[in-house]
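Hi,

I'm pasting everything inline rather than attaching a file, because the server keeps stripping attachments. The sequence lines come first, and each chain or strand is labelled.
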Amino acid sequence: MMAPASKAQKLDPLAYLALPGLIFMALVFLAPLLLMLWSSIRGADGFTLSGYARVLGDDYYIQVIGQTLQLALITTAGALILGYPAAFALARAKGWRQVVLFALVFLPLTVSIIVKSFGWGIVLRRDGILNWLMLNLGLIERPIRMIFTEFALYAGMINVFLPFMVLPIYSVVRMMDPRLPDAAATLGASPWFRFTRVTLPLSLPGVVAGVSIVFSLAVAAYVTPSLLMGDRYMTMSMVMAKAFLNLRDWQLGAAMAAVLMTLAVVVVIGAAILQRRLGTAKGS
Amino acid sequence: MQPDYLVVSGADKRFGAATVLRDLSLSVAQGEFVSLLGPSGCGKTTLLRCIAGLLHPDRGRITVGGRDITALAAHQRNVGVVFQNYALFPHLTVAENIAFGLRARGISKAEAGPRVAEALALVRMEVHGDKPVTALSGGQQQRVAVARALVVRPSLLLLDEPFSALDRKLRETMQVELKQLLREVGITAIFVTHDQEEALVVSDRVAVMNAGQIEQLTDPVTLYHAPASLYVLDFVGQSTKLSGKVLSSSDGMIEVQTAFGVLRAPASFMPGSSVAVAVRPEAMVLAPEADAALNTLRGQISDISFLGSRTQIHLNAPAEGEDRVILELSRLPAGLATGQEVSFGFRVTDTMAFLA
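And the predicted assembly:
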């Protein structure tokens, strides 16, 4: 704040427009965050790391962390596989087709996560729509158990987070010159060569952004795993909720939260570095 | 030299309800430069994309050097394209852009190196090989686009408005430079352009396109001096047009009554038919001496415009009428002023007549 006058003058006055937002975030996000980190290292006799020792030294919690990472990775990969082509379709569509595609991808965002997760319950139940359909089509003889399986969890998670993958990829692809693949074709490049050497590298900044958003959301997911799997598939967020609400063990919950935050921050920062590197490879 | 190197025969292309190419046929000799000239929407870019394989005609055949390429995809055709605004790959350097076609053909980086260097030298861009293409000027980008297309030794080079992204001065230099470069390489080239001056400068023959068809395909001099239709006349160069009626016709010569008087033109139209008579501005002279080979008329000067290398004089007819005559002089005679009545003339053989 006490920067020399010459430096202060270089600051664009427009930057002050961020001030209200910064103050708000400092009050409602940063301060509680620091309090929480503080409670993770505060024991009965002052400073202690026993909360972290309990989280990282317990096989059960290590398993939860592993499960959480696995869920986040599978969700991110699934959203990428489904979202990448969808983003291209969205970017290249014209007129009413683009409006319809937009609605298909983004209207689900307006439906609450709880409603969506219950919806998946209705679809996947033993007497649910999917079983009914497969039974009547003769694909299966007896209803398959889908709800409260990992399949149900992955499907629900990908459904919830897909738009956050599509949007950043779409915004990058939209700015791409559609004649570049044409130019590559006239130079003798097969469709595969065109994709790997032109389309993919140019869309990578969008992929990096989408992956970091979806991963950091999925790694912290709470509602969808609890509703679709319950206690059978504990995630870090669910352990935290239990620690804070049921066990009243603030030290454990806060330490778990710190570990979760570290994982998400590492991915986001890694993605930012990757994105910058891709950006400079192109720009200088 | 193969006379029918590139042959497009009976090509039709429709987009929904719009017919963009109608039964179009075109034949280009090996090593020849042909321009496709026309306003936007005439089908010239569609024809180019059909030849490149980026579009496929609904009907018709395309052959290059006797090989039927109609059914081949773009990457199987070996037809090079220089795109409008060049479509260089922004994530690659100049050298990587040029190497792209070689790498796509499975040529190793090491083998591609000397050929890339050769192509860079061809367009005098040796020192810029490691730069990203985004750091280049418009003229340099065009050279990279040309080198990138030529390095794979295509059987044919298509250029889509290659000069439209350049400012006027640079455009004129690049037109001559590119023409000489392509001659040196000995490649067959098709230019797409809406700029008639550019078409005249760069090509051996110009195809003027209108509504999905070729209206006239001939060398620039014939195109300028003997346009086949009023459409071609209007599209290529400036001209004075006078409407009139045929008074008489004999031995391929007609006499036409215009607002400026009676004049003769080499044509055979029925007496009584309505015609448009056209003359190029530079074919006219002011105050000519009596000569049977000239059409001599009188008019009143309405405007004198100095254009630098030449001066344009606009003349109104002595009788009522909206027709105006534009004549161009390289040197303005002293004492000429608006409102003055003068005589002017042009050779009968420079007079073009079209049915109106």
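The CA atoms of residues 86 and 166 of chain A lie 7 Å apart.

If the labels don't parse on your end, tell me and I'll reformat.
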